[in-house]
What does this fold into?
Amino acid sequence: MKALILAGGLGTRLRPLTLTRPKHLLPIANRPHIDHVFEWLHRHDVDEVVLLTSYLAERFTEAVARASTKGLRVEVTHERQPLGTAGALKNAESYVGGDTFLAFNGDVLSDIDLGAAIDWHRSREAEATIVLTPVADPSAYGVVSTDSEDQVLGFIEKPPREEAPTNLVNAGVYVLEPSVLSRIPRGEVASAERQLFPQLVKDGARLFGCATSAYWMDIGTPDKYLQANLDALAGRFSTTAVRTPGEAVVLSDEGATIDPLARVSSSCLGAGSVVQRHAVVDGCVLLPRAVVGEGARLSRVTLGEGASASPGVTASDMAVADGDSIES
It folds into this structure.
């Protein structure tokens, strides 16, 4: 089985954390997000991956090398100008061949059973299958309407909660037949969500929605990114990066130090990060070499690489760019 990973986005919703790196390389439980994706694929016997890149594409080199040591063959395509989700898939058409393949948004963190989704797709002789996930508030998303046999009827963008026909939204995980790619214009900017899939519905193609209750998180905003880290620590998202999950677990990478007089809970500390005495850190992510000054109090804060919180400062619900600081 082959998988195409859409990893070309600019990550604008995740700024300032994405000013210096693609969002797919931000750490979840001190491990780059894309490494979790590769592990997920490998666990489901996917052995060939095409990484569809654009923004800061050169930053993926180390992640690709790590994946190859674990038995994944990773090809990398590069768009000089982003082509959109459908355009990127079309750009990789030569890699697909004649078999069913997976495609998904690279900013999805999930443990969806990919094998089950593929079997479901084939049992319906579908041309395309969209994996669907339930959300608490459908008004914040575009919901996917299906009939009694799970064939997609249409897409409703951010309906009022009381008017939404379903709480199922596009999980950004797709099982596709190669014929889908022939429907996408070459060399043009095109969206799978706003153009390709609605056109499939209009054409009467066999487009189905496969619902799942598995863990799913789009890490595309600072709040969701932070929550994904907390979910990994607590065990809501299962990963080998956290050996003993729990609600107050602290995960420290190599060289991270916590002063004995500091209090840290439910947090990820990157390599070489420092929490000084009397500081309180709860529900935070510290990227490598971040520093929390003496007596600082942080709650649900992400400190970028080499960023700092000055002594005595109090801060919550924010993300700080690499090398920047929170001043008192």
